[in-house]
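Before the break, one more example. Copy the sequence into your notebook; we will annotate it together after we see the structure.
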Amino acid sequence: MKILLITSYVPYPLFSGGQVRTYNLSKIISQKHELTLVCFYRKEKEKEHYEKLKTLYKEIYFIKKRKPIHPLSLTKSLGKYPLLMNMYDLPEAKEILKKLLHEKQFDLIRCETYYIAQNLPEKLNTPLLLGEHNIEYLAYQRYADNQKNPVLKKLMQIDINKIKKWEEYFWKKADGVTVVSDFDKNIIQQTGVNNVYVVSNGVNTKYFEYKPKQTDKRRKLSFPAILNGSRIVKRVILF
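Here is what the structure looks like once it is written out:
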């Protein structure tokens, strides 16, 4: 299969949970399938890992993410999209994806997180598999619930309501949704979406090999002892 993978981050180096998950899934998938990567970056140095990424992806396209405090991100957040989506609402991203889908034949589009799926054409002829690492509106809601400033809390709630709306929209638009837990799966299914699949995070059992802790099975009893009326030391009795 030829797969177009779109991520909101550069999958390497492995600093975040999302990077670890995407990189290792790509490492397995690329053994039998052809991957093309479109990813967003924050700093120029992230592109220094191009050669490492080329071992997994046939083609790689980097797009500069807009900063959250950018005037355009903040201004656009007064409209229909939440701030999270406005950081990735980029003409360059839309143009690259439009061109790729027009010039190349892909069997599957894999989009990591809903808020970058907005850059895909409205009508797709290729199946879309949406990967959700979290239920975003719930994560932001927990933060807002602990916010003490009433004005900021109100503004955050408005943004969270937008996140929930668009998150559910892309769940329903996708041909399939993957999540990391049964909890997330149940949340999505409550919106009427049934094509939800749990792909749990794995563990490298060779690297994180379990080794029983070696301990002295004898019991230890320690107590202080006074020597020469001033010096204190510990005496330990094993039995």
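The two ends are 65 Å apart (CA to CA). The first strand starts at residue 2 and ends at 7. Try to locate both features in your own notes.
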